[in-house]
Design a protein that fits this description.
Blueprint (H helix, E strand, L loop, with lengths): L5 E9 L3 H11 L3 E3 L4 H6 L5 E2 L3 H22 L13 E4 H9 L1 H35 L17 E9 L4 H10 L4 E8 L3 E9 L3 H7 L6 E2 L8 H30 L2 H23 L1 E2 L3 E9 H14 L2 E6 L21 H7 L1 E2 L7 H16 L2 H18 L3 H24 L6 H10 L15 H29 L3 H26 L5 H19 L7 H11 L2 H10 L3 H20 L6 H42 L2 E3 L12 E4 L4
Parallel strand pairs: 4-14
Antiparallel strand pairs: 1-10, 1-11, 2-10, 3-9, 5-7, 5-8, 6-7, 9-10, 12-13
Helix pairs in contact: 3-5, 3-8, 3-9, 5-8, 12-14, 12-21, 12-22, 13-14, 16-17, 16-21, 16-22, 17-18, 18-19, 21-22
Length: 660
């Protein structure tokens, strides 16, 4: 089994050694510390043990870590080096790491300086936008001749505003005269929306003027200032130039600070360590002089952990095997070729404790299904080379690394199916040959989804049947492992007979004149009889048992539906080839000419890159679906919690013994 066996670890140590015990466990990186809470502990040690609340310390470290992370992201945008998708962690010396860790305040101040510089950049941009808005407003009043803030004399007043563009200033002035209002309207400028005017009036007419102007379409302008508009515009432009210069200095400063980004990266990882430690301290139970730690350790590492603790500290340790139904954290351990497929299972759910890891059983089917759905040797070669280069060059870790390796392996399967189906970037070879020579050629293939889809569909359904049988076999394995041998026979064995018999019966249609059909029919009948006699065995009386057994035969519909789901292998494989052929046909429309070959190259690259991307995504999604629904549904017991050992978390740096 690929689920690693776990041991339950208990440690009683002196309170004085608490920090060193946690440090030691972090260095070993194989112990998951459990929270010492629960009714059992309260019952056993009521009044003796206490817990340490570390929420405030964790909140402080988290806030500091957030500040540092923001500064790192800011400086990352100002690094001159070329950015890479899967950047490896930076190697730093243990001495440098310890230096930063011992003086966090200085590096935190550096992070705050970076954040302050960016805040100032925001303030500069905001002030520039305000000044440009002022300039835009004043640009309509450059012919005014006095400051926009001028309000008039003792007996006269001034109003600035706009009239509709089609309004005649002379007519508007005439209407003011007719109303007995002493005023003059002076046009200043026009734009596409309005006419900007200055209204000079006698203050004795102010009330009547304010009542009449809105009726004439006048709108007061929101403009002010202490100098003529031309002078104010020049002043604002000077302020903008100064702000731009300041902004440029900040950019240069950030570029210079980016050279010290490693300090922030080290501090971030150190603060992550602090969070882990505080969380571990909070999980311990303690008395006045001792601490009590419980956790989980992989069985093969348990003795080494115990020996290390007992050698370094005055402590009492105990290892125990989990009880039959006791839940323990899940750690998967598979051969390297299987590990990429763990990402598919982990995306669904980890296996439950005391169940089985499905990855070894699932991997061959996922491999076949992925390649059959993409089914083009050229696409497979691109996928394999591209992902192999990423893995070799950048060595991505975690889920990203597993995904890259999974697609790389899937690319190998894709090349295999591409040779079987005769697909090499669609029908590129025949199209190129015809463009160059005008003659037709046929690429040899064992099967052709476009020319003979029925054969490919039958192959898809046969693969699906084997996939379902493998899932049913896994269910039988679990039942036998748990001592339910007869349940395995009744619930799996008889269904093998029914489905296998029906498969043999169908084979009889292509082998007429042979007893194959009769053999398949009798095998299916034997399996059905077994189901009728056993599937109601949990019922109390003979009639209920019989009805339950007969009702179980309805599950044949579910099995048939599951088998038909594998027709998607044909559908996606066919779509890959058809779209590829359409791309090549479009590219060859220019014929055998220089322009035609250029057109083909452009369409070929763009079209096939798109086709590779969309079909790779589709193959991954649909291959996963076949595992999750059709396969896992037959046996998989999910719900396991991942093994989370106490480690020194590293997001940005790798600590080495020597200077990096």
């Amino acid at each position: 089994m690929a689920i690693v066996n776990m041991k339950k670890l208990s440690v009683i140590a002196l309170s004085d050694d608490e920090a060193e015990v946690i440090e030691t466990l972090m260095d070993m990186g194989v112990t998951q510390v459990e929270d010492m809470t629960g009714e059992e502990i309260e019952r056993k040690f009521a009044g003796l043990l206490s817990k340490q609340a570390n929420d405030e310390a964790i909140s402080v470290y988290d806030a500091q870590r957030k500040t540092v992370r923001e500064a790192i992201d800011i400086l990352a945008a100002h690094v001159d080096a070329k950015k890479v998708l899967f950047a490896p962690r930076r190697s730093v010396s243990r001495a440098l790491f310890a230096e930063i860790a011992s003086d966090t305040e200085q590096t935190l101040a550096f992070a705050q300086e970076v954040a302050g510089a960016v805040r100032r950049q925001g303030e500069i941009r905001s002030e520039e936008n305000r000044l440009r808005g002022e300039i835009d407003t004043l640009s309509h009043w450059t012919g005014l001749g006095f400051s926009p803030g001028y309000t008039g004399t003792k007996h006269t007043g001034v109003m600035l505003g706009t009239l509709p563009l089609l309004a005649d200033v002379s007519d508007t002035a005439a209407k003011l005269d007719e109303a007995g209002i002493i005023a003059d309207i002076e046009p200043v400028s026009d734009d596409k929306d309005a006419r900007y005017v200055a209204v000079l009036y006698h203050k004795a007419s102010e009330g009547a003027l304010l009542r009449l102007l809105p009726q004439l379409g006048f709108t007061a302008a929101a403009v002010s200032g202490d100098d003529v508009p031309e002078a104010m515009i020049r002043r604002y432009e000077g302020q903008i130039a100064a702000l731009e210069a300041e902004y440029g200095k900040i950019v240069s400063s950030l570029k210079e600070m980016a050279k010290d980004k490693v300090r922030l990266e080290i501090l971030y990882d150190y603060l992550s360590e602090c969070v882990e430690k505080e969380a571990a301290y909070a999980k311990l139970a303690r008395t006045e002089r001792t601490i009590l730690l419980k956790g989980w350790v992989p069985a093969e590492a348990a003795d080494a952990v115990v020996k290390t603790l007992e050698r370094k500290f005055v402590c009492e340790t105990e290892l125990a095997t989990p009880a039959e139904e006791e839940a323990y954290p899940i750690l998967l351990r598979n051969p390297k070729v299987i590990q990429p497929f763990e990402s598919v299972t982990e995306m669904y759910s980890l296996p439950a404790p005391h169940s089985m890891d499905p990855n070894k059983l699932m991997a061959p089917f996922f491999f076949l299904f992925f390649g059959m759905m993409v089914s083009d040797a050229g696409y497979g070669l691109v996928l394999t080379l591209a992902t192999a280069f990423i893995v070799w060059k950048y060595n991505p870790q975690g889920q990203a690394g597993k995904l890259m390796k999974l697609i790389c392996i899937g690319g190998i399967s894709t090349m295999m199916w591409g040779v079987i189906f005769g697909g090499y970037f669609g029908d590129t070879i025949p199209v190129l040959y015809k463009m160059a020579t005008g003659k037709e050629i046929v690429i040899p293939s064992l099967m052709n989804p476009s020319a003979d889809p029925i054969s490919v569909l039958i192959l898809s359904l046969i693969l699906g049947l084997f996939h379902l049988f493998a899932g049913m076999g896994a269910k039988a394995y679990l039942l036998i492992k748990r001592g339910h041998i007869w349940d395995a026979v009744f619930d799996v064995g008889f269904w093998y007979l029914v489905l296998g018999g029906l498969g043999i019966l169908c084979l009889g249609f292509v082998l007429p004149g042979t007893p194959v059909m009769q053999i398949g029919m009798w095998i299916a009948i034997a399996g059905a009889a077994g189901l009728v006699l056993t599937q109601g065995r949990a019922k109390k009386n003979i009639f209920a048992k019989l009805i339950g057994g007969i009702g179980s035969l309805y599950d044949i519909v579910s099995y048939m539906s599951d088998i038909l789901s594998y027709s998607r292998l044909l559908a996606l494989g066919l779509s890959t080839g058809v779209v590829g052929s359409v791309i090549n046909t479009m590219g060859s429309m220019g014929g055998n000419s220089i322009g035609g070959w250029i057109l083909f190259f452009v369409v070929f690259v763009i079209g096939h890159v798109f086709n590779i991307a969309i079909n790779t995504l589709g193959a991954y999604v649909h291959s996963s679906r076949l595992q999750y629904v059709e396969f896992f549904g037959k046996f998989y017991e999910s719900g396991g919690k991942a093994f989370r050992p106490l480690i020194r978390p590293r997001k940005y740096v790798e600590v080495t013994q020597q200077d990096a």
